């Protein structure tokens, strides 16, 4: 964790001009209990660069090499993997029976002030299973017009996924408060918007939908009115027909 600022700054700089075939998250988490990670780092706060390169295999090493050589990594788990294996990579970290409360927020900047907040909340997690995920956005998705598809939030350079994960029900209040407080602490670095895969508890669905779909919400409501006027197929975050 003492090298977090160096790692995240270097990753941010590299991803700003990286090829579209590379996607990376910077994850403030805990060292996993696996043989490849030295025991002194297992369970301790660390920063992980979790990425996937989907371009031509012969270019892979050249593309990911700058990320593998930031500082001195405590472990390097990068390897050729099948696409299904990539999708299943973290399944074991989110088993049924545990407790999860996730929120999201888009950021306009990831500077020293913002990263100090992320580091502070990583060190003060009530559960070592919780993580803070920095999604480096831009690239191909940012070159699509905001009104071209339902997905609206294409102009933000970063998104934070706040994952509160814990094992005992008695710890729920502390972990939910941690996620909500971090979300509040990051608002000075955000101009709004949210990602509906990590919505957290929703008090005002209309406000939540507006933050996700922006000016596209009205069109989605019109489509719902045309094809499902009686709202026979409501979602958890339901778009009402209008």
From TrEMBL:
Sequence ranges assigned to domain Berberine/berberine-like in this UniProt record: 208-233
One Pfam family linked to the record: BBE
Keyword vocabulary terms for this entry: FAD, Flavoprotein, Oxidoreductase
InterPro entries membership: BBE, FAD-linked_Oxidoreductase
Swiss-Prot/TrEMBL cofactor(s): FAD
Example GO molecular function: oxidoreductase activity
Record protein name field: Berberine and berberine like
Species of provenance: Desulfofustis glycolicus DSM 9705
Lineage: Bacteria, Pseudomonadati, Thermodesulfobacteriota, Desulfobulbia, Desulfobulbales
